[in-house]
Amino acid sequence: MSFPDIRPRRLRRTPAIRRLVEETRLSPAELILPLFVKEGLTEPRPIGSMPGVVQHSRESLRKVAHEAVSAGIGGLMLFGVPEDANKDETGSAGLDPDGILNVGLRDVIAEVGDATVVMGDLCLDEFTSHGHCGVLAPDGSVDNDATLQVYAEMAVAQAVAGAHVVGPSGMMDGQIGVIRKALDRAGHQDVGVLAYAVKYAGAFYGPFREAVESTLQGDRRQYQQDPPNLREALREVDLDVAEGADMVMVKPALPYLDVIAAVRDRVTVPVAAYQVSGEYSMIEAAAANGWIDRERAILESLTSIKRAGAQITLTYWALEAAHLLRTRY
Ligand code: PBG
């Protein structure tokens, strides 16, 4: 019988020693809370496929922004949901200073100022009657270059509303460069760009589509990336960094940890990951069935995303995770 000389288990024996040697440690400051604000609501409205997440009214949005600051959350990513009557072919409500997203940005900035980083989703899908992320060509495809012009205006509108950072999520070619130039030309040199550089056309956005009342028929495979491709993701990242992205994002997160790791190795700008609606709802649904320990699964998933290389994570659990982390040890 031979016994081991080296015993890794020594470092796992008590909670204190495990804590001492923990390699990856989450903090609220690296989490971004995505928030939905719905035009015309007087009360927050639950989203059926995302238990615990709501469409906010303007008033409840301000309240949750304040809570996020108290919890030390690193940032907020705002999505606007217009009334159906305000959706049109070109998504003009996204550019309108009185459109719900720009109103929401102004409200949040008025509430929290510079105490956290306030970001706006820069995409047309919530505002178009057809639900695509851009404007359509006569043949029904998304017209890349016509969309860029709209994004340029939308970026400036969000900057004027007070956004610290804009988050272009439409996967149009050249969007980062066009947005950067438009911001600079309008005197918003200090407004940053968090590029959704790598966004896969996967199956995990389902619940989000309910959250924003998406009208999309079909899919986004002509602009978002194909899930099997990693090298293509690096190409997208290189382009976005060259065009001036201040931070790059990989989305979704958990099914794409290899992509997060590869992007992290490749760039020197901060790397973010988006734990998307489907990732959230899977864990919530399993926990509701008693099949999984909810709180442990939340922290384990977030830790994995960070371990893979994400310095920043967008998660619908940001507030709850902040509370869990505070009481963890
Ligand atoms: C597009 C956008 C989407 C998400 C964020 N921005 C939806 C899509 O690409 O269809 C998804 C986020 C999530 O699923 O949590 N504006």
TrEMBL record:
It comes from the Bacteria. It catalyses: 2 5-aminolevulinate = porphobilinogen + 2 H2O + H(+). Its EC number is 4.2.1.24. Pathway: Porphyrin-containing compound metabolism; protoporphyrin-IX biosynthesis; coproporphyrinogen-III from 5-aminolevulinate: step 1/4. Keywords: Heme biosynthesis, Lyase, Porphyrin biosynthesis. Pfam families: ALAD. Belongs to the ALAD family. Homooctamer. Catalyzes an early step in the biosynthesis of tetrapyrroles. Binds two molecules of 5-aminolevulinate per subunit, each at a distinct site, and catalyzes their condensation to form porphobilinogen. This is Delta-aminolevulinic acid dehydratase. The gene is hemB.
